[in-house]
Amino acid sequence: MTSTPSKLVGPFAVITLVVAGLAPNAAADDSPGPAQAISAAAQPATKTGFSSPFSGTPRYERYAPKQVKKAKQLNRALGLKKADRIAKKIGLRKSHTFTNKQFRQFVSGKGVGGDKADAKLVDASVRILTNTNGRPLRSKIDGHCVKSVLASYGVMVNRDGLLQSPANEAAPTRQVNSVLVPGGYLGTWSRANGAEKSMRTLYKSAYTSEAVFGNQAQQESGVAQLVKNKKPGAKVTVGMSMAPALWIVNFALIYTLKPKLAAKMPARWAPIPPRVARAIKNSATGQVPYERYASAFR
Description:
Blueprint: H1 34-39, H2 58-61, E1 66-67, H3 80-89, H4 100-108, H5 116-129, E2 137-141, E3 144-148, E4 156-157, E5 162-164, H6 172-175, H7 177-180, H8 185-192, H9 196-204, H10 206-220, E6 226-229, E7 236-239, H11 244-257, H12 259-262, E8 268-269, H13 274-282, E9 288-289, H14 290-293
Parallel strand pairs: 1-8
Antiparallel strand pairs: 2-3, 4-5, 5-9, 6-7
Helix pairs in contact: 10-11
């Protein structure tokens, strides 16, 4: 089974998408327009090894995860202190995030205009994007419950035991985009339930410019939804959710809903084992049986 959505009670589980729509009239000071993001696609890799549009807005790229250097860093969560520092750097304010009550109502489909189906998508998405140490996803493979922790790789295992990018069209993290676009559940619920300040702060942050790049990155990545990283002397592949533009978009959304959940996102990215990346790219659906490739991650 993919990820089993938690009930979003207690230690939040927030909304994350792999590509978000923009709110109207919400651009940050130096936010590029869609045309700029498209033309940027031909640019060479940056210092991080990611090229545009995956690298996102240059001024924010430095705040995205760096590559794993030691085994103990794999799938390690950010931690709240680091999450708070990043939030400030990208224009978010902790005092402008959802209150505990607003969060509980939002993710449970309650409050004015609450929607349980949309809330369920949010819950599942957060679980996937915070799939770090201590927060495994659970799948059912050959009748057995199998746990997986793969957030640093930017991949996930779905309920049916299939390995895929969180940006795969079948994943909750892709489907949740309808919740996030202007006029979607997030915006309309926030306006109806006193969370306008949270939304204004989100749209003035790095979220807006990064979402432009993130959208373009997803459009360019085909069925597999994987990303090439080209550091000097090496070329590796990672899942879409760990590319700077996408990671920052998701971080901004999750932090706005619940800072403690954003702190559970992966602090560093790791290359997908080559044979696994090839298999995903060669799959017509962008999915492969996790059981067949699990040993490559050990």
